Structure formats: C-alpha cells, structure tokens
Amino acid sequence: MKLYIKPIAFFLLSAAVPLSAFCQDAISPEIVITGTSEKAVEPLVSKRLKTSDTASLLKNEPGVALATGGGVSSLPIVHGLGDDRLIIYVDGMCLTSACANHMNPPLSYIAPSNVSRIGVKAGVSPVSYGGDNIGGTIHVESDEPVFAQQGEGTKGSGRVSTYYRSVNQSTGAAFSGAVANSNLSFGVTGSIDHAKDYKDGHGNTVTSTYYESRNLGATLALKGDTSLLTLKAGHQSIPNEGFVNQWMDLVDNNASYINIGYKDSFSWGKLDAKAFWENTYHRMDSGQDKLAIPAVQTGMTYMPMETRGIDLGYSLKTEIPFAEKNILRLGNEFHRFTLNDSWPPVAGSNMMSPNTFVNINDGRRDRYSVFAEWESKISKEVTTILGVRDELVQMNTGSVQGYNMMYAADANAFNAQAHARNDNNLDITALARFEPASNADYEVGYARKTRSPNLYERYAWSTSFMSAGMINWVGDGNAYVGNLNLKQEVANTVSLSADWHDNARKNWELKVTPYYTYVNDYIDVDVLTLKSTGNTLQFANHDARIYGLDVSGKVGVWDNGSFGHGELSGTLGYVHGHNSDTGSSLYHMMPLNGNLTLEQRVSRWTNALELQLVGDKTEVDALRKEPTTPGFALLNLRTAYQYKNLRLDVGITNLFNRFYYLPLGGINYDHNLANLRLTPFESVAGQGRSFNVGLTQTF
Fold first, then answer.
1. CB 286 within 8 A of CB 673
2. Which one of 261, 596, 628, 661 has the fewest CB atoms closer than 10 angstroms to its CB?
3. In a domain? residue 165
C-alpha cells in the first residue's frame, strides 16, 4: 500500500478544505464544480441529492457562504459580498431579482438537475467575466447540446432521476433527453421539486420552509464546421414557496425565457455572441403557515403584491491572438432590466385601500458596457492579464402613489424630485501568475470594481413601517427606504494566492488565498426610526473594509487494491467586514468555518464521511438587530454505487440530529409574529437529521 501522507497532512487535518477543480490558465483562481469531474471531491450528482436549491450546490466551497431564503432561493455570498454585489449568469443570461424581497434570485431560475457546471470567481476577476459587481462572478451552465459523430446517423440520449429527503418529505424527479445527428440537435429538460416544512434538531417544525418548483426547457442547436448556433427556451413555475425570515411568502412565480447563442472560429480569432429575453410575473402574500398564526388572523391577514420584471440584453465578445503568446479580448454588452411593482388594495382595510399602492412605476435600469483585456505570456513562468471595462448605467422610474392619503406626503415628496440617474463606472483588473516549478504556482491580483444601486435601493419611497417592511431581502425584520442620492459602490481589492501540489495535482495540494477589499460608498444604512419591533432604515453610502482568508487542500491517505483510494480534503474560511464610518460589523458576515471530508473510492463505490464546522457568530450588526449564533459541528455520511448507467446515491445529513441556528439565516419571522412581535428576534434553526436517497439512470 502506498502512503501519500506529506508533512502538510497535519495542517490539513486541522485547517483544510476541498477545492473542486483548478483553473489551469492565467485567469484568477476559480471554483469549478461539474457533474462529471473525477477531481471533484463531491461532484454535482452527489450534491443534488441534498438540495433543490441551485445556490446550495456551492455550499462548503472556499470563500462561499449562503444567506438563507426560501427552499429554492438562497443567496450566495462570496468573500462577504453577496446578492446584487455579485453578477450571476445563467447560460449567459444576466438575470435580476424581480421582487422587493429577492425571492426570485438568478440562481432560482435553473434547477439543480439541469446544472452541468458552476464557475465562481471572487473579487479579483477579469473584466471579461462581467461588470456591475464588487464581489465576483458566478457562471452557471446547463448541459451542452449533444451531436452524433460524422457517419453515425441519428442518435438519442437521456437521463432520468428521482430523490427523497426525510427531513421535509421532499420528493422530486427530473428528466432530460436529446436526439441529434452530426449537425442538428434537439433536447428537452424538465423537473419538479416539492417539499413540506422541515424539522430542526429538536424535532420542531420550522414553518414557512415549504416549496414547489417546476421547470421545463428545450434546446435546438445547429453545428457547422467551426460554428455553433443554439436556441434555448424555457418556463418556470413556482406556485408556492415559504419564507420563514420574511413578512410575506411567494404565492406565485412564473418566468419564461428565450436565449440565442452563436460561437465561431475565424482566421483572426473567436467570436461569442448572445442575446436573451426573460419575463417574470411574481406575486407575494401571506402563505399558508402565516395565515394559520392566530396573531395574524386577528390582524393583517392579506397584503397582495404583484411584480413584473423583464431582463433583456446581448453580448458580443471576441478573442484575438496576436504577436506570440498574446491574446486580446474585446467586448460590448447591453443589459436592460425593467420593473413594475404594485400592491392591489385590500377590501375592508383602512390602511391598504382604496387605491393600488405603486411601489416602483416603470422602473428601468440600463447598462451599456465595453471592455478590453490583454493576456500575455511574458515567459514560461509568468503570465499577466490587464483589463479595463467602462459601463454607463442609466436608471429612471415614474410617479408613485400610496393606498390612501396616509402615504401622500412621502409620495408627493418623491414625485416632486427628478428620478433619472446616470453612473459612469470604471473597472480595472491586473493579474500576474507565476509558475516557478511544476509543483507550485502563485497569483497576485488587484481589481477596481464598481456597482450601481439596484432599483429598490434608489427608488423605494415610503417611510411607513408597514410598506417599508416589504423592502427587505436580508431577512432581518427591519424596514428599508430607498435613497435617490446614492452613489455607486467602488471596491478596491487585492488578493494573493499560493498553490502547492504534486506535479500531477493528484496526491496532495494546499492552497492559501488571503484578500483585502476597501469599498468606497458601500451601500449600508442610516436610521430613520428606532423601534423595539424593528427599525426603519434608509440605504446610505458608507466606507467599508472586508478582509479574510481561504485555505483549501487535499491529501491521499491510502491507495491499494482492497481498500481502493482514500483522500482527505478540507476547507477553512474566515472573513471580517466592518463599516469604517461607524465601526460596526457589516451584516451577514460568515463566522470562522471549515469542513473535512474523508472519501473512499473502491470498485463501483464512492463513500464519504463529512464534518462541517462553524464557529460562534459574535460579530453582528446591532443596527439591524442581527442575532448572535453559537457554533456547531455536523456530521454527514454519503455513499454512491455506479452500475453501468445506473447510479444510486444514499446519504444522511446531520447524522446526530444536532440542533443549531443558521448564522446567515436571518430571523424567524413566523416565530416573531406568533409571539406578538416580541424581541429579541430568534434566529432560524437549521435542518435536523435527514435520510436521503436518489436514483439516476442515463441512456
């Protein structure tokens, strides 16, 4: 038996973490998760068993945390920056949350069963990867169209899968199928996911955590000698989804999209063109669990809200080799997001009638972008990337109104002001990669990234706690008011990455990435009204600092015929963020956390023991009444058996049924309503023990 225990193994035992794959080009370090990679500690096929939330596929990856939302709608956070501070592309479509509570974030529009690859790049990301962000980029891709080989005729392929999770009686099924010859391909996908409320480690039901999601999609592709033309279309329906940390729940969400892509290679280089349109109808109201709370039944029962959001845009990108070992990337992008958000009157209510409450009227946010990026192989050991992106962001909205004269002062004050705002945003990225030997590489990078406010941050106008309380995507029980005078956020980030490994990157690896970000005009909050049951806060610019450290690694621990191959992998993450003006902690900073995974691959079996560790959350935002949470440790088991094209996955999460609070879960708003809005707020408890089983057949 060969032992691959290296001196770093002792360090990995206490502070290691899995990195799914490594980008081997000059571009900054990237987390890449795929469905088929043998290098992945836990590929997508196993991750899908645990969750119906696509964002949760990134759980336990270095530098990534999740702000808990609904069952299919959590919000990823990268190096302490999340939600709209990240730019997220789904098959090249830049999507926007069309909801005052961000119940339909970009990653909610693709089911985990349809994901073939996720790439995450933190703050120092090349300008070619996207603008309008200060935290990084996330690119999610579905399966590429399949084609037959020349002379093979027509062939078909497909996949069906199903699963069950005991903690919330979650069930689901998915299918995909394609028929193709060597030039033409047609494929379809579909999925349905359904779950009841989950139970915590004490066996108590955590209400408003139910969900149901349905997705359908089709792809038509035409391949030439060097070109690929794709047309994708799809529809999503979420008939209900509870949000335990929000005042309202999702009671209907319907979205449709069309996505056209064209790629080709020419003598001068490569062309990548894309155009898309996505239309969302979204409704919020009190869901079934909130309506069952006696305190709600005797007070405000209904508050319907209706939103329509449309994303449309295009991108043109070229890659032009020149001189020797130099690449020039040029691009032009346009993205428009339009939003109408209105709340129908409630019959018999003095506060919510007789008019429709117009929250956002014909809101528009247009981005016009151009970028240039130069990649140069200076020597065998050194590669550099320099990039500049310029964006014009134009925003505007129309006049508003309240339910009645009670809201007239705020509405009149807002309507009397000019609403149009133009931001000119400049991004700069400089990266250098140094590979002095086959077993080590280093990367240093600097980025200046800019993000303009979203429509709600600028244009939410009412200071009434009831209506301002609907503007809340952080799940903290407070009320938020927009600010027409907000400036764009400008982040200056420096990061260093050191990666040591064996020559083949097979037996051991250790990667360390410290980073530091200073944000001018970070969009935080100022207080308008302090209350014991929740504050009324207005978005405001402050300076902020964020710094942290990611550590990841793996080491082979055995390799023989009887016991197969054994590997220990792990991650360690630390992030600290605070408001430089007030000295307070930034909201939703993940405490010290890590995980260790011991995996065995033998014959057709893959077995793993996973330990998740999270420290005490003591650095909290007092202004938002953010609760502290104690640390916890969870143990998970999983095994998979592959027989030809049939795969069986079985797992147990939270093996010992530990009770714990989610450090980024926000408050349990249902509990708060049931206890007559008493404070302090209780955090949302995490899921108890769950027995999970999944079956996947490919053909």
1. no
2. 628
3. yes
Is 3 within the bounds of a domain? no
Amino acid 506: pLDDT: 87
Burial track 105-140 (b if 16+ CB lie within 10 A, e otherwise)? bbbbbbbbbbbebbbbbbbbbbbbbbbbbbbbbbbb
- The count of structural domains within the chain is 1
Is the N-terminal amide bond of 354 cis, ω within 30° of 0? Answer: yes
Question: Model pTM?
Answer: 0.93
**∠ CA 132-475-668 to the nearest 5 degrees?**
160
**Residue listed under structure tokens 């795929």:** 34
Enter the DSSP assignment of 487: P
Q: Is residue 356 part of a domain?
A: yes
Q: For residue 29, what pLDDT band results from cuts at 50, 70 and 90?
A: low
Amino acid 680: pLDDT: 78
Q: Report if residue 498 sits inside a domain.
A: no
**Average pLDDT of the segment spanning 541-547:** 98
- Residue 475, sorted as left (phi over 0), alpha (psi -120 to 50) or beta, turns out to be left
Average pLDDT over residues 487-506: 95
**For residue 358, what are the domain limits?**
9-488+504-698
Per-residue pLDDT tens over the stretch 246-255: 999 999 999 9
CA-to-CA distance for 530 and 170, rounded, in angstroms?
Answer: 40
- Rounded Cα gap, residues 455 and 460, in angstroms: 8
Q: What is the pLDDT of residue 293?
A: 87
Pairwise CA distance, residues 333 & 279, whole Å: 19
